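Ticket #4471: structure export looks truncated?
Reporter: QA, pipeline team
Priority: medium

Steps to reproduce: submit the single chain below to the structure queue and open the exported record.
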Amino acid sequence: MILHEIYFDALGGDGDNPPTGLAQPQSGLAQALERDFGSVDAWRAQFTAMAKAQAGGSGWTILAWSERLGRLVNQWAADHAHGLVGGTPILALDMYEHAYHLDFGANAAAYVDQAMVNLNWERIACAVPPGDGRRSRRR
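Actual output as written to the record:
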């Protein structure tokens, strides 16, 4: 159930950021994404590719904080019971067909693109555990 709460909490952005329509994360979260993925765009590409790869199936695409790794990671979860051990979900995208089929039919990719436009980064940033930006990336 927690992933549904994270999913719905993350939605509600205005999608008004020309020319792409993609709102950008707040500075602290943006810095963490840049540190852990190279750039916000690189994170977004990886996250959306992972989500689109689940099209026609089921599961979740999750941005999570890994305490063990000391960084943000993208992950796929089959259901509510299989997540990153010790991970704290920051953003969850529901890829079960019930999340998109009424509005998008079988076009899960369009659902993913629309969800990414409507993220509320202010609320997502509130889910980041305190102090994660001070930790260094472990190798």
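Status: closed, not a bug. The export was complete when the record was re-opened. Leaving a note from the reviewer for reference: The CA atoms of residues 63 and 91 lie 5 Å apart.
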